[in-house]
Amino acid sequence: MSDGITFDLTKERWLPCLNLQGKPMKEDLSLREVFAEAHRVSAIQGDSPLVTIALYRFLLAILYHAIYLDLKRPTKVDDWRQLWEQRRTGFEMRLLGDYFQRFNDRFDLFHPQYPFYQSSDAMGKKDEQGDSFSKSVAELVPEISWGNNATLFDHRFERDGFSLSSAEATRRLIAIQAFGLQGLSGFTKKNYRNAPLVDGVILLAQGDTIFETLALNIQLYPVKADSNDGPCWDSSNIPEWEDARSADNEGGYTPRGLLDYLTWRNRLVLLKPPASKEDFVVREMRMSRGFRLKLDEVESDPLKSYSRKKKKGKEVFEQLRWDEHRALWRDSTALFSVHVEGNERPPRAFKFISDLMITHNLPLDASHRYRFSAFGLSPQQASVNFFRHETFPLPLEYLRDPESFQKLKDNIAYAEKVRKKLERACEFIQKRLYTGESNKTAREVFTRNVMRRYWSHLETLFFPMMVRTATEVATRDQETTRWHSQVNAAVHIAFDEAIAGLGATAEAYELYVRGYEKIWGNDIKSKKTGGDEEMKVGKATAPSKRLEQARRFVVYLKRLKASDKGAGAMAEMRHTLNHSAPPETQPMFKYIARWMNEEGIGYKEYLIQPLCLTASLFALHPENVDDDSNMGTHLAKLCTGPSKMDEGSVERRFSRLLETSFDELPNYLAQITRLLKSREQAINYARLLADIQQWNEPTFANQVKRQWAREFWFRVTAKNKNK
Question: In terms of residue numbers, what domain contains 593?
Answer without folding.
Answer: 536-721
